[in-house]
Design a protein that fits this description.
It is a single chain. This protein is of the alpha/beta class. It has a domain of 164 residues: Vaccinia Virus protein VP39 (Rossmann fold, 3-Layer(aba) Sandwich). 24% of the residues lie in helices and 18% in strands. It has six helices and ten strands; from the N terminus they run ααβαβαββαβαβββββ. The strands form two sheets. The chain has an eight-stranded mixed beta sheet with strand order 3-2-1-4-5-8-6-9, with helices on one face. Helix 2 crosses helix 3. The longest helix has 18 residues. It is globular.
Length: 255
């Protein structure tokens, strides 16, 4: 398969991933997503345009996978007592049923096809999707046309790899960055390529919040470590495979 240099298609990006599209577990660490939302949602609320009381926050979950970000945001909203309307965008049709538990609407398409407007975009996209053919076509720059706040988890080196990444970062610097302490474990079980158990990813990760109109200094903080003091963030149960509960309320349409 030939991969275009700067602007691979959504299906090309999927084939770049080194995990199976039909896997039954979501590799996104739930505790980490929860910590990011706890740290960032106050700033997201401040960036949200004024709406009528009780009007739900309109959320776009890009590269939504099995719905870890959507389920954790719905749980966060329930704890903080605010309404949300979540649209999950994913290119894999097999994930629709899991996403439907947490999202009010599911669209099976590329995030580049989205044209609606939202209050915030969330997600953990593949690193190849972050840097576009030009700085103005990077994922944060494009998504800021859809929402005043964009919150993404990504490798810290995503915008440091070569001139395109550096140019994208300079063109659209985030307002706030939360560095992830320690390592991150994204997978369980064994690597089908070599039969060895998956280990923690030792590369540095961060959550970045882009705000529309921001062009100044980037505030950098460090997320707190896991409650039991481990130096890594691990998932506990496969997000998206468990049923909705009081802790993880389902989308209204799925009840």
């Amino acid at each position: 398969m030939t991969i275009s240099l700067f602007a691979p298609t959504a299906l090309e990006l999927r084939e770049l991933e080194d995990d199976a599209a039909a896997r039954e577990d979501d590799p996104t660490p739930r505790e980490l997503v929860r910590a990011i939302l706890d740290a960032a949602m106050v700033a997201v609320w401040r960036a949200r345009p004024r709406r009528l009381d009780g009007d739900p926050m309109r959320v776009l979950d890009v590269c939504a996978g099995y719905g870890c970000w959507s389920s954790e945001l719905r749980s966060h909203a329930a704890r903080k007592r605010y309404g949300v309307h979540i649209t999950g965008v994913e290119i894999c049709e097999a994930r629709r049923a899991d996403l439907a538990k947490w999202c009010d609407r599911v669209e099976i398409c590329s995030w580049l096809d989205v044209v609606e407007h939202f209050d915030v975009v969330i997600g953990n996209p593949h690193f190849s999707a972050l840097v576009g053919a030009s700085p103005a076509e990077s994922m944060p720059a494009v998504l800021l046309d859809l929402a005043p706040a964009v919150l993404l988890l990504h490798q810290s080196s995503s915008f440091q790899r070569g001139l395109p990444g550096v140019a994208a970062w300079r063109h659209c610097p985030p307002a706030r960055v939360w560095l992830v302490p320690g390592s991150v474990q994204f997978r369980r079980g064994t690597n089908p390529k070599n039969g060895k158990r998956w280990g923690s990813d030792q590369r540095c990760y961060q959550a970045s919040l882009w705000l529309r109109g921001h062009s100044g200094h980037t505030s950098v903080e460090v997320l707190p470590d896991t409650p039991d003091g481990r130096a890594s963030w691990r998932w506990t149960v496969p997000p998206g495979s468990e049923d909705p509960s009081d802790e993880l309320p389902a989308a209204p349409a799925s009840k």
